[in-house]
Amino acid sequence: MPGLTKRALKPEFYPVAKDFFEFKTDWFTYRSITKDKLDDILKDDFKRAGYIPFTDPFWSTLNGMEAYKWRTVTPLINYYGEIDEVIPVEIAKLAEGYHKLVGAAGTRAVSAGPKADHRATYIYSVIQAKPFFDSFLKKK
Question: Do the beta carbons of residue 132 and residue 77 sit within 8 Å?
Fold first, then answer.
């Protein structure tokens, strides 16, 4: 959606976001200028456009995706960090809650710990991957 970033971000955060996206600045510079919560970075009018009814093209598309609304038949673990700066805990737990509601068993949200940011959560999930997949091997 052309112009979405400029329409969504407060003007003081747009230049560093653009530079970060274009690999002109690093993560640490980006984080030193931006805020911890997405809510603090987005323009108020952009956030208001996401209220029902979804008349804004971005919010309408996002609502239509409903990525967490599916019924899984295979086990799934969503890892989250309790200080993850990219994915809020509530979002990480969304699929588990929805699946419990609709009776699709096997989805779990697992905390990587109270000090786990986005990178630590990734590392934690990689360490847990082999034992998770090994648990499906047939025992002799």
Answer: yes
